[in-house]
Amino acid sequence: ASGRTPLMAGNWKMNCNHHEAVHLVQKLALGLADKKHDFGKVEVVVVPPFTDIRSVQTTVDGGQLQIRYGAQDISVHDDGAYTGEVSASMLAKLGCSYVVVGHSERREYHAEDDALVNAKAHKALAAGMTPIVCVGEGLEVRKAGEHVAYTVAQLDGSLAGFTAEQIASLVVAYEPVWAIGTGEVATPEDAQEVCAALRARVAESFGDDAAAGVRLLYGGSVKASNVAGIMAKPDVDGALVGGASLQADEFGGICRFY
Ligand code: PEP
Q: I need a labelling partner for 6 at 20 to 30 A (CA). Which of 114, 130, 188, 218 fits?
C-alpha cells in the first residue's frame, strides 16, 4: 500500500530438514515462475530453521532465484560463550536479509520481553539485516477490548532507540496470538484496525516519513484464499505466514495474490 513494496514472509518454524528445505524452495521458485510472479511487485521471503539456511543460500545463489531468506531468531551477543545461540554476523554472512524477532512463540516459550526483542532488532539492523518485529495480543486481551493499547505498548518497547530513518526501513508484523495456527483468521477489518494504530503510533513517535516507510504485515492463519481481502487494506503491507508457507503451491498463491 502507498508505495511500500508488499512483503510475503514464510516462517517455517521448526519444520523441514535441509533436504526438504531445498525441495521446498525449488518448488516455490518453479511455481512462482509458472505464475509469472513479479518479484519487484511483491517481495518473497522464506524463514527456515538455522540448520537449513546454508542449503537455502546455495539453492538461491545457484538458481539465481529472487527469493530472499532470513532467520527465526538472533542472539543479542556478538560471540563467545553462549551455547546454542547464533550471532548476527553468522546470519549476515549466510546472506540472510531478514530476522524475525519477538515471535509470539519466543515470547511465550522463551520468556522474551520487549527489551530483549528490542536488543535483538538492534543487532539484526546493525549487521545489515532487516528485523521483522512481531507484536500481537492473546485471546484474553482481545476479549477485554484492549488489543490496540496492548500491541501499541509492545511496539513502543520493541522499537526503542531506533532513528526515524531506521524505522522507515523496518518491518513490523501484527500477529494476534489467537489467530496463529488456529485457522481463526482475523478479519481484514481487525488487521486494519491494529495496523492503522501501529502506523499512527510510529508517526507520533518517529515522524511521518518513518510511518510512511515502515512495512506492517498481518500474520495469523493466512492462506491463498483469504490473503487478498487482508492485502486490500491500506495499512497492511504483507503477511507473515506460518503453516501455509510449508506448502509451495499455497505460499506461491499467497505471494501471487494480486
Ligand atoms: C506465525 O506463526 O507467524 C503464523 C502466522 O502462523 P500461521 O500462519 O500458521 O497462523
A: 114
243 is annotated as contributing to ligand binding: yes
- Per-residue pLDDT tens digits for 185-225: 889 999 999 999 999 999 999 999 999 999 999 999 999 99
Task: Please report, for the chain, the start and end positions of each structural domain, with discontinuous segments joined by +.
Answer: 7-255
Per CATH, domain 7-255 is 3.30.470.30 = no
Looking at the DSSP assignment, which residues form a beta bridge with residue 240?
9, 219
List the one residue out of 96, 70, 99, 75 whose CA is nearest residue 87: 75
Give dist(CA 28, CA 247) in Å, integer.
Answer: 8
Beta bridge partners of 9: 45, 240
Give the Å distance between the CA of 7 and the centre of ligand 1.
15
Is 178 annotated as a binding-site member?
no
